[in-house]
Amino acid sequence: MHFNLALTQFFVIGMLFVRKSWGLTCFQTDEETGEIQAVTKDDYVYCRLFPAVRHPITGKLVHAQVDGIIKEEVDGPFQKFFDAQEPYYQVLSICLYERYHFFPNNPSKPAEYQFRCICNTDRCNSPSTFEPYLGTLRRKSQDNREESA
Question: What does the alpha-carbon distance between residue 38 and residue 27 come to, in Å, rounded to a whole number?
């Protein structure tokens, strides 16, 4: 009995060590080529996705940007969300629509808006699966507006 318990504890601790040594795998945009590749780093704590959007003034498509985030780059209390788990509930990703207005007293410098998603599982920041999901949400939202009109 004690042997089985000790073996189980050794296995669990070993798996935690192996998982930690593997690090988190996030998709990352190559800044030079624009290609997206999977990158594993021990110090990634989250993966991040900036979905493709149209520039509000030019209408030009700005392609998705993806990368991993190390602890020193974390700019929000994300861990509180991911830690809030129950057997029936778990946060898988957090998406934020943010407004930055660095020069509020200068009307010639408008506020900037940013939409990003944060997640903490391997390869969770894939634009190829996330962007169709957003498109479906937009279509459903449009259908709901038309039906209620």
Answer: 4
